[in-house]
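COMPLEX REQUEST
Ligand: pyridoxal-5'-phosphate
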Amino acid sequence: MSSIEQDILSLTERDARVIWHPYTQMLHAIVPTAIVSASGSDLFDEDGKRYIDAISSWWVIIHGHSHPYIADRVSAQIRKLDQVIFAGFTHQPAVELAEKLLDLLPENQQKVFYTDNGSTAVEVALKMCMQYWHNQGQSRKMVLAFHNGYHGDTFGAMSVSGRSAWTAPFDAYLFEVIYIDTPTAENIADLKKQISAMSDQLACFVYEPLVQGSAGMLMYGAKELDELMKHCRKEQVLMIQDEVFTGFGRTGKHFAANHLNEAPDVMCFSKGLTGGTMPLGVTTCSEDIYNAFLSKDKLKTLFHGHSFTANPLACTAASASIDLLLMEDTQRNIERICRRHAGFIHRIGEHMRVESARQTGTILAIEWRTETGTSYFDDLRNLLYDYFLNKGILMRPLGNVIYILPPYCISDEDLDYVYEEIEGALELY
Ligand SMILES: *Cc1c(COP(=O)(O)O)cnc(C)c1O
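STATUS: Structure written out below.
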């Protein structure tokens, strides 16, 4: 494009010429909002209009946008060491982050493997578990997962996610997975029986702990998950706990793992890992998993890596983000959001348009009651999306479920405004 054209056209017009957006039907896509800057829980568009980032920019921003501490640390790092191959080489940011992270995780987590997003963190977790059995000459080939799970958009991650309209074009290419319901007091005995019946076939069980995010913030109990995990341990089914979404304070504690007594074999992290500033993925594992790859036989190596594995800038951002997470101020903010969400649920729980209002930590979800069928959900979803955007609030309803999970620094005033506008929408739609 010529520089004259660039001067005449708006950013969104130039966008429409060259860009294909994620999760977007481009035929009748709404004109994207061009964001020029962000700070704290605020986003600012080209015209200077402010939006409250009520969903932490797709669940990643935890300390607020453009946090000066993270910015300073990353800026110093890029002047010192920007990137280096991570096979045969190492660096301070990667080692420091691994040490910091392992200190916060269940004791059995002993090793850190780096990738660059949540999907690849899951791919590595699956490969670790599958090859764990392979390396020991055991034929455990099946994967167990929850209905409605979401673990990412690459092929392995798609395979273990619940099958849906999103995965339909690829179903023929996805590997077979055994699905079970999330546990409840009523079905737990039956789930355990199902697992026992096939345990010698199962390589691993992969699950989102406590909250199934993409499925519509579906929540289930820690007590039941604990019981299921204990049973998997007994049946020697390896557990992959996907904390890509639930990690770093989202559930009110550092990790969903902190709500549980049992520890998984493998854990996945991304999203809030760098405070949402840069792409990075982490897969951690137990000593037992790691040891299954130690061998004089070269074929027992974990042959996996990405060009940007353990990028020093991303590791630095993550290290800085963990420093912030551990500060008393941040912990107080997390508690404050948990408390205020609970108060809001109390206030609107009985509203006639509320089918269900639920909360896990800083995650609040409200299911709209609708008499009509599912196609109406799409219309309602778009209505609500526009409604909130017009009010200066970024929300992204999942069907008839709206949810908020703000950056922890959001002010009481902004949170009140979001709550009030939700009440306003409940009166209208
Ligand atoms: C978002 C998400 C992923 C995928 O992470 P990406 O970085 O988007 O690839 C995996 N698992 C869970 C639980 C997620 O919420």
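REMARKS: The chain is about 40% helix and 15% strand. Residues 70-325 form a domain with the Aspartate Aminotransferase; domain 2 fold (CATH 3.40.640.10).
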